[in-house]
Amino acid sequence: MPTILIVEDEQSIRDMLRFALHAAGYQTIEAADTHEARVRLAETVPELILLDWMLPSGSGIDLVRQIKKDELTADIPIIMLTARVEDEYKVKGLETGADDYITKPFSMRELLARIRVVLRRSSPESVEGSLQMGELVLNQQTQQVTCQGELLDLGPTEYRMLAFFMAHPERVYSRSQLLDRVWGRSVYVEERTVDVHIRRLRKTLEPFGQHHLIQTVRGAGYRFSQQY
Ligand code: CA
C-alpha cells in the first residue's frame, strides 16, 4: 500500500485528495506547509509526494530542492500541483527535480492516472501489489511472503526489511540508512539491531537456500542481490 505525502495549505483540497487517494487504495500523510512537510518526511519516507506550488511558508520549489538533496528522500517522486499555467514555472519545477505537474483545477481521475505512471516509473512493481525476486514472492496486500510456494514465518521487522530490500535490490545500504528506511527516522535503535534482524531474515531464508540474497558488504552495509 503506497503512502503519499500531500503538501497543500488549502484544507478543502487536502480533504478531497485524502478521500480520493484512500478510495484508490493509497495511504496518506499530510502537511499544510513546507515546515510541516519536513517534519513528516523526518518520520516517514513516502512513496510519492503531491506538492502544492503556492504555499504560505515558501515556494514548493525550495522544498523540492531540499528533498532532492537529501540522500534518503532524493528518489521519492514528486508531482507538483500548480495553479499557474505559465510554462516557465512548469519547466522550472521539472528542472528542479519534480517528476510531473498537474494544473489546478484538475480531475481526480487524471491525477490518479499520473500517480500510477509516476509510481510505476519509480519502482516498477510496487503498485502491482507484489514484489518478486527469484523464488521469493512478497504480497504487499496480505503482507505475506512465500518462497518456492511456501509461506515464510517472518516477524514484522523482518517483513518490512525484506519488503524494503526487494523494492531496492542491487544497492548497498549502510546500517544507518536501513534504520531510517525500515524503522523510521524518529525511532532510536542501535545500529547492531540491524545485524540481529538481518541474521533472523537469513535464517528464515536458509532452508530454501536463499540466504545468499542478503549480502554483507564489508565496511559498507548490506545489499539484496541475486548476483553472488
Ligand atoms: Ca496553495
What does this molecule look like?
There is one protein chain. With 228 residues, the chain is an alpha/beta fold. The protein folds into 2 domains: 120 residues, 3-Layer(aba) Sandwich (Rossmann fold), CATH 3.40.50.2300; 99 residues, Arc Repressor Mutant, subunit A (Orthogonal Bundle), CATH 1.10.10. It is 41% helix and 21% strand. It is built from 8 helices and 12 strands. A 5-stranded parallel sheet has the order 2-1-3-4-5, sandwiched between helices. Helix 1 links the parallel strand 1 and strand 2. Helix 6 crosses helix 7 and helix 6 packs across helix 8. The longest helix is centred in the middle third of the chain and has 15 residues. The radius of gyration is 19 Å and the shape is elongated. The mean pLDDT is 87. The structure holds calcium ion. Calcium ion binds next to loops.
- Specify the CATH homologous superfamily of the largest domain: Response regulator
Low-confidence region ranges: none
The span between the termini is 31 Å
Strand runs, count:
12
- Would you state the CATH class of the largest domain? Alpha Beta
Rg result: 19 Å
**Main pleated-sheet profile:** 5 strands, parallel
Strand order of the largest sheet: 2-1-3-4-5
Essential attributes:
about 230 residues; Rossmann fold; four-stranded antiparallel β-sheet; elongated; binds calcium ion
